[in-house]
L-fucose:H+ symporter permease
Amino acid sequence: MWGAAAGLNDILIPQFKSVFELSDAATAFVQSAFYGGYFLIAVLASRFIKRTSYKAAVMVGLVLYIVGCGLFFPASHMATYGVFLVAIFAIAVGLSFLETSANTFSSMLGPRRTSTLRLNISQTFTPLGNLTGIVLGKYLIFDNAASLEAQIASVQGAERQELIDRLLGQTLLPYKYILAVLVVLLVLFALTEYPKCRPRVEKAAQAGIGETLKYLSTNKLFLKGIGAQFLYVGLQTAVWSFTIRLPLETIPGMNEYEASNYMILGFAAFFIGKFPANFLMSRFSASHVLIAYTAIGAVMLVFVAFGPGNWAVWGVVLANLLMGPCWPTIFGRTLDTIEDKRHQETGGAILVMAIVGGAVIPVLQGFVSDATGSLQVSFIVGAACFAAIMVFFVDQARHAVTDERA
């Protein structure tokens, strides 16, 4: 469900750019509202889990997600960019509860030695959600006509306003279907019993927020993981934010309806890429597998930035093959650095807060696009992120060798 919401963001960006006549940097504020919600609420969600349960946090997340989708009803009628951003932020608040609980919950449902692989397997469903969101957006929001920019430029006055109102009204349609599914999920979670799945510590031994933050701030491996997760989510979000826009810029006659096919192929590649990664990580060091993935990814996005324009969009699609295992592997490995399990929930929440990279890196890429006048060249930002994440996994591999020798 959070994959579907993220996928729809990538549809909303080209829609809002044309309707509200925004720069590339301004369109990226869709992601800033989305991932800013994660950042602000994650620690609160972790404290809620500590006082209640993972199940309760999931249910709160579903309720808030429903509220956020409901806000698209007034947003589609008020027709201002700011109101849409508020609705997207509200959805993200619910998703922050969902991810803070579900990711940590998955890592704890079994032996610690297989927590990273288990998280990779559970996260395989996220790109299915991404695909669902993008398909809903393509068929319910976009028209198979001229590009939005050309449609709006061809009319004036009342006719132009009528077209804009219709286009904004179409943004509501996929959220109606999501609302129905969310209500069913909420009922299922309410009726299903789940294990408590929390560290066995006495109440008197539980850590306060101050003690937890002090502990985590001295954990260098944990802090490096936060940085890597920030860059990865930023990389992924930036690539997805501008995938539909890239063929619109580089392929003459392309419209949003057709360009969204590249986003569908990208999410399919993201999904497929997880399977060989899961296979390789069950037989080799996860760090070494991800060193190879991120190195190839960096080269691929350099090609996107400076290669032939008609091939660049295919480089973006292929880059998705290499992104799939990054988030769960960084999350699982970083969570494993927390030896004192009293700090597990808050540590997981802070890792979710690192999602704020998705609010920052797309805006940075948008500024590069606006400054250079080339959306294609701006993909160099993603290449730099891939390279930095590769350095993180090189460091992880080095520490693993040192631990084995010790």
Summary: The chain has one domain: 2-194+208-405. The mean pLDDT is 85. Residues 228 and 388 are 8 Å apart (CA to CA). The domain at 2-194+208-405 is CATH 1.20.1250.20 (Growth Hormone; Chain: A;).
